Amino acid sequence: MQGVFRLTKMLKISNTVFIPDQEISISAIRAQGAGGQNVNKVSSAVHLRFDIRASSLPDFYKERLRQHSDKRISRDGVIIIKAQNHRSREKNLADALERLKKLVREAGLVRKKRRPTKPGKAARQRRMDAKTRRGNTKKLRRKVCPE
Q1: Does residue 123 sit within a domain?
Q2: Backbone phi, then psi, for 47, in 5-degree steps?
Q3: In DSSP terms, which residues pair with 18 in a beta bridge?
Q4: Which pLDDT tens digit goes with each residue over 110-130?
Q5: DSSP string of 5-52?
Q6: CATH number of the domain that 29 lies in?
Q7: Its pTM surpasses 0.70
Q8: Radius of gyration of the chain (CA)
Q9: 147 has which bridge partners?
């Protein structure tokens, strides 16, 4: 690890759910790719690790995160986020924390279960009337044949 540093506050997920800074491990690493001297000298990328099982998150969130199929969640239940989009470490840290917050929030969302519905009798009748009108319009476009 290049350098490990700590956060100074709790990460707020919702009004009732927080992640203490002790549960988030952040290390500074060198960013990959082009960037000239800055990339070769400065450890501006951030590597964030968050252990789901050892966290103080409510059990509901833990279970939903473990079931979530995301490449950032390892088999051991550790969320690993690498942020290197920005030139400064502070912006990359903010980006990594925002992505962690978004991932946990998405896991907490409970989607409304879809109930299959059928079209009503009036809707079916309107559909059939529209089809008949369309057919009549096309019939009127045909060539007139003498009888």
Answers
A1: no
A2: -115, 110
A3: 12
A4: 889 999 999 999 999 999 999
A5: E--SSPEESSSS-EE-GGGEEEEEEPPPS--THHHHH---EEEEEEES
A6: 3.30.160.20
A7: no
A8: 28
A9: none
